[in-house]
Write a structure and sequence with these properties.
The structure is a single chain. With about 1100 residues, the chain is mostly beta strands. The chain folds into eight domains: about 90 residues, Immunoglobulin-like (Sandwich); about 90 residues, Immunoglobulin-like; about 80 residues, Immunoglobulin-like (Sandwich); about 80 residues, Immunoglobulin-like (Sandwich); about 100 residues, Immunoglobulin-like (Sandwich), CATH 2.60.40; about 90 residues, Immunoglobulin-like (Sandwich); about 270 residues, Protein-Tyrosine Phosphatase, Chain A (Alpha-Beta Complex), CATH 3.90.190; about 140 residues, no CATH class. Helix content is about 10%, strand content about 35%. The chain contains ten helices and 70 strands. The strands form 19 sheets. An eight-stranded mixed β-sheet has the order 52-53-61-54-60-59-58-57. Strands 3, 4, 6, 7 and 8 form a five-stranded antiparallel β-sheet that branches. Strands 11, 12, 14, 15 and 16 form a five-stranded antiparallel β-sheet that branches. Strand 29 and strand 30 form a beta hairpin. Helix 3 runs antiparallel to helix 8, helix 5 packs across helix 6 and helix 6 packs parallel to helix 8. It starts with 6 loop residues before the first strand and ends with a strand.
Length: about 1100
């Protein structure tokens, strides 16, 4: 019986796995399923589930009594009597047990850090590590499992003072996490600011007020006071949620120390303290007697009041100055106050960005050193006089900015036209890096670049890798500055300095040279009479494009010495000789494939020997050279007002310039890796073996447990007009990948799908019908799809679906273009333009990403995206860049806009829009449509006997033949890596006029079929030398009778051993194969 379909875990906990699977497709005949689990820990490790329903629906089975956190291999097989199918297998894990007793080290809690600890799970459970996170943050940290029963982690980054955090701790087994264990911790709030007191002049009531720190969270405030210098004096404590509080219970004539603390969830901040003196009560007059020449008054004090001798505020210090400035310290000096008593001086300082003062030890002298200052920071330094704890109300202060540190340890990464400078980020504050450079030979050509944004890559570690077990960050971040538009081979001088608060650091200098650029061609001068030498000629590299001193020539044999020529040598030849003939014969027998031309700049070599360099080697294709994007032309903007003339010029001579321009796009992006697509577990998910997504831009699904390849789908992000990731371009879903397709739509939060193919074309499946037929909901994996409504138009269909996953629902639109013909492009390019307009009328620029697919997901999809970008671009710009748009798309996904006809169609659509013919329904020029299926029957041509029309002669290296008026010479090299060159003369009609004929001669190059299939080519050419693969991207692996014009021919490379010539006598296509001339030549 057939193998069951894909299955998933529908429910799991610590000891149970409930699996759900799809029936086989096609279902076939079977009676029940056998479901097994390894290791056999379950109460029943082999289950038999009967088939239910016809056709059968999904089935399920539950394994109980499993070990928490353990990985289990589950297999499902169909059974029909004694026969059993191949298994569908997957690995799933049970949920591990949760940690226990999450607690906190209260001594470690500060305003910006805390330490959390927990215990390992109780009982038998398998897990690898702990996952620790804050409930308010998505950032997760991992702590390896150790033999200790207690684990811990310290949080020190991005925490808010006074805020309550919930710490979530889970165990992790593979990629399965346990239920969480949680604990709440509140950080210390910051102290209050600006604590001060006011005394009512009439009543003597003392009122205090303060400001909460805006960077802190607090619920209330705690106010405490007590008498100073008195044992068991008056004291009290109260709480309030206000920032002003009248102290009505203070006793008169007392000296109080008063503190205020911010409180958040019963966690108190550090104290803020002031001294408050209450006004003494008036004395009570006991007796008033008249005496001679006056009055005799006696009084007594209020028992609640106290009178003391109090010191006044001291005067402030004078003439505060800064002396002896170093890179991280200053010496502060001042003069003592005039006519004032004092006991000492207090010194505080803080940076401009901080509000908290740093207090230094008090001094009695008139100077103090302020040390450990950060380079580049601006400081305010304050000095005040103190008289027995009472400070002057007017402290003296001065501002001082510490000079920023210079850069050091610069490493230049050198290329031909740019240099990247790297250096460790200097310690301290830096606002801007200034880089000045000029050619050493022309010091007046000074260029400047300032960089205020740096790129830092911290290295993090957790737990066991360090003795303290704390989460940390590497202290050596790096600054990168790219200097471009440099002349190859030129020596440049660089000067770099930093700036902070207007102060400039010391200048660091560097001299280095760009690499010279090669623009020469090398030719072998053949001399068959000389067996012990080979002569090379070369074209010079223009001195205006690169500076250099020598040419160096090397052969692949290291025993043959290199040759050097001066740059200005007019003799453009060099000769290699070998006395025993051996090396030269070997070198020339492989067609000098290892010949290397090197431009050598002598000073550049010496510089590299004296200084460190970093370099990386990139793999290079054996049949072409990959140039950097700065060398290759990647953009060709055309002004909109000149587009009609541009199109006329490109379309002249049978679209000759279109062919040339499209040929330049052939290798764009092809050197990029597709590693994940070629993994064995992912190969069956690709519709075509040669259409694979690039690694750097592929869409990644959320992994499913430990299932290898579960994050893979054949899809890439492709840039649009509104965003660099506006589109997700994918292949037409296979039956086995449609669940992944809907998962991609859900996980990307896409709200629109564009489909540009029919499910079946030319009798072949191009795309699975991955959506429901009616309004009955259908499950694709765990995603429920229900059709809401359908709108039918002449050339497209718009359907709205409701996607549901769990309790979440989303609406998504499906735009299906239904009239793309089997061959070529839409007959009326305006139809495609109208479809793009209809799509954009319903999908706004902020609704992204948009999923686009045809069958292979390259040709039609690229045409649609290019046209969408262009129609938006012409609204906001006065130019259009079709070449550049296609170039960009091909860097993200292979073969975007696959055929020349599609490339021309984009231009035709834009031309129709600019001419106001978007809604005109007139037929366009001939698009090489399939004429073999017209309504008017045509008499079939008489069969042509190949034996009569072809004379075949094999002379050991070539085959020559004449076939019914068509002369062909087939010359082939007898190596697998060779090309077959075909030259054919034929008679063809001009402009479909049978009275006017012309002779055409075409030269066609074929690569071997194994290389062709690997690279996505099926080289089919018509009689006038124009590529006849006018189908879209969906037929890379299809074998069909090719399409011809009158007098045409087709030559198809079948594999690496044979080539087939197909000729049609009257230019029409018929299904009867005997009407095609067919002959195979074998090597």
């Amino acid at each position: 019986p057939n193998t069951p379909g894909k299955f998933i875990v529908w429910f799991r906990n610590e000891t149970t796995l409930l699996v759900l699977w799809q029936p086989p497709y096609p279902a076939g005949i079977y009676t029940h399923y056998k479901v097994s689990i390894e290791p056999p820990d379950a109460l029943e490790s082999v289950l038999y589930v009967e088939k239910e329903g016809e056709p059968p629906g999904p089935a399920q089975a539950a394994f109980k009594g499993l070990v928490p956190g353990r990985a289990y291999n589950i297999s499902v097989q169909t059974m029909s009597e004694d026969e059993i199918s191949l298994p569908t297998t997957a690995q799933y894990r049970t949920v591990p047990l949760r940690p226990m007793n999450v607690s906190f080290d209260w001594n470690s809690i500060t305003s910006n850090s805390f330490k959390v600890q927990w215990e390992a799970p109780k009982g038998n459970s398998e897990f690898d590590k702990y996952q620790v996170s804050l409930a308010t943050s998505r950032r997760q940290q991992f702590v390896p499992r150790t033999s200790d029963s207690v684990a811990w982690l310290e949080f020190r980054e991005n925490l808010e003072p006074g805020k309550t955090y919930q710490v979530v701790v889970k165990t992790v087994s593979g990629k399965v996490t346990s239920w969480p264990a949680t604990g709440d911790v509140t950080l210390k709030p910051l102290p209050v600011l600006g604590l001060r007191s006011f005394t009512n002049e009439q009543t003597g009531l003392v009122t205090i007020t303060w400001d909460p720190d805006p960077a802190s969270t607090q619920d209330e405030y705690k106010i405490s006071y007590h008498e100073v210098e008195t044992f068991n004096g008056d004291a009290s404590t109260m709480n309030t949620d206000r920032t002003t509080y009248p102290l009505e219970t203070l006793l008169p004539g007392r000296n109080y120390s008063l503190t205020v603390q911010a409180i958040s969830a019963k966690v108190e901040s550090n104290e803020s303290t002031i001294i408050v003196v209450t006004r003494p009560s008036s004395p009570i007059i006991e007796d008033l007697k008249s005496i001679r020449e006056g009055l005799n008054i006696s009084w007594k004090s209020d028992v609640n009041s106290r009178q003391e001798n109090m010191r006044l505020y001291p005067n402030s210090p004078r003439n505060m100055t800064i002396e002896k400035v170093t890179s991280n310290s200053v010496l502060v000096r001042w003069m003592p106050p005039i006519q004032s008593e004092f006991s000492e001086y207090s010194i505080r300082y803080r940076t401009e960005s901080e509000r908290q003062w740093i207090r230094l030890p008090s001094v009695k002298s008139t100077e103090a050193d302020v040390t450990d200052m950060t380079p580049g920071e601006k400081y305010t330094i304050q000095v005040n006089t103190v008289s027995y704890g009472v400070e002057s109300p007017n402290p003296q202060h001065v501002n001082q900015t510490v000079r920023p540190n210079p850069v050091s340890n610069i490493i230049p990464l050198v290329d031909s036209t740019n240099i990247t400078l790297e250096w460790p980020r200097p310690e301290g504050r830096v606002e801007t890096y200034f880089v000045h450079w000029w050619p050493v030979a022309n010091p007046d050509q000074v260029h400047t670049k300032n960089v205020s944004e740096v790129y830092v890559t911290p290295m993090s570690w957790v737990g066991g890798d360090h003795a303290d077990g704390k989460l940390g960050v590497d202290d050596t971040p790096t600054v990168h500055v790219l200097i471009g538009d440099l002349m190859p081979g030129v020596q440049y001088k660089f000067r770099i300095h930093t700036i902070s608060y207007g102060l400039t650091s010391d200048i660091t200098q560097l001299t280095t040279r760009t690499k010279p650029l090669i623009q020469s061609e090398v030719f072998v001068v053949n001399n068959l009479q000389e067996r012990d030498m080979v002569t090379l000629s070369y074209t010079p590299t223009p001195q205006m494009s690169s500076k250099f001193d020598l040419y160096r020539f090397s052969l692949g044999d290291p025993d043959i010495p290199d040759k050097e020529k001066l740059a200005n040598d007019t003799d453009r030849k060099v000769t290699f000789t070998d006395q025993d003939n051996t090396s030269i014969i070997i070198a020339t027998s492989v067609s000098l494939c290892l010949l290397i031309l090197i431009l050598v700049a002598v000073f550049f070599i010496r510089k590299r020997r004296n200084g460190p360099r970093k370099a990386t080697k990139e793999p290079r294709s054996s049949d072409n050279m990959s140039l950097p994007d700065s060398v290759i032309e990647t953009s060709r903007p055309i002004e909109i007002k000149n587009f009609a003339e541009h199109y006329r010029r490109m379309a002249a001579d049978s679209d000759f310039r279109f062919s040339e321009e499209f040929e330049e796009l052939k290798h764009v992006g092809r050197d990029q890796p597709c590693t994940f697509a070629d993994l064995p577990c992912n190969r069956p998910k690709n519709r075509f073996t040669n259409i694979l997504p690039y690694d750097h831009s592929r869409f990644k699904l959320q992994p499913v447990d430990d299932e290898e390849g579960s994050d893979y789908i054949n899809a890439n992000y492709v840039p649009g007009h509104n965003s660099p990731r506006e589109f997700i371009v994918t292949q037409g879903p296979l039956h086995s990948t449609r669940d992944d397709f809907w998962r991609m739509c859900w996980e990307s939060n896409s709200r629109a799908i564009v489909m540009l193919t029919r499910c079946f074309e030319k009798g072949r499946e191009k795309c699975d019908r991955y959506w429901p037929n009616d309004t009955v909901p259908v499950y694709y994996g765990d995603i429920r799809i229900q059709m809401l409504n359908v709108s039918n138009y002449p050339d497209w269909v718009i359907t709205e679906f409701m996607m549901s996953r769990g309790d979440q629902q989303r609406c998504i639109r499906h735009f299906h273009f239904t009239t793309w013909p089997d061959f070529g492009v839409p007959n009326l390019p305006q139809t495609l333009a109208r479809f793009v307009r209809a799509f954009r009328d319903r999908v706004g620029p902020d609704q992204k990403p948009i999923v686009v697919h045809c069958s292979a997901g390259v040709g039609r999809s690229g045409t649609f995206i290019a046209l969408d970008r262009i129609l938006q671009q012409i609204v906001v710009a006065d130019y259009v860049d079709i070449f550049g748009i296609v170039w960009q798309m091909r860097k993200e996904r292979v073969w975007m806009v696959q055929t020349e006809q599609q490339y021309i169609c984009i231009h035709q659509c834009l031309k129709a829009v600019l001419e106001g013919k978007e809604n005109v329904m007139s037929p366009p020029r001939e698009m090489h449509d399939n004429q073999g299926y017209e309504d008017t029957p045509q008499p079939p041509p008489p069969p042509i006997d190949l034996a009569e029309g072809c004379k075949v002669m094999d002379d050991g290296g070539s085959i020559e033949g004449t076939c019914n008026g068509m002369n062909g010479i087939y010359a082939e090299e007898m190596t697998k890596s060779s090309q077959i060159v075909v030259e054919i003369e034929s008679t063809a009609y001009v402009d479909a006029n049978p009275t006017e004929k012309r002779q055409s001669r075409a030269s066609i190059k074929f690569i071997p079929a194994d290389v062709a299939i690997e690279n996505g080519f099926h080289d089919i050419y018509n009689g006038n030398g124009i590529a006849a693969n006018d189908d879209d991207d969906d037929d890379e692996e299809e074998d069909r009778p090719p399409q011809t014009k009158p007098g045409g021919y087709k030559i198809i490379m079948k594999n690496d051993h044979e080539c087939t010539l197909l000729v049609n006598g009257d230019g029409e296509i018929h299904e009867n194969r005997h009407q095609w001339l067919r002959r195979e030549w074998r090597r």
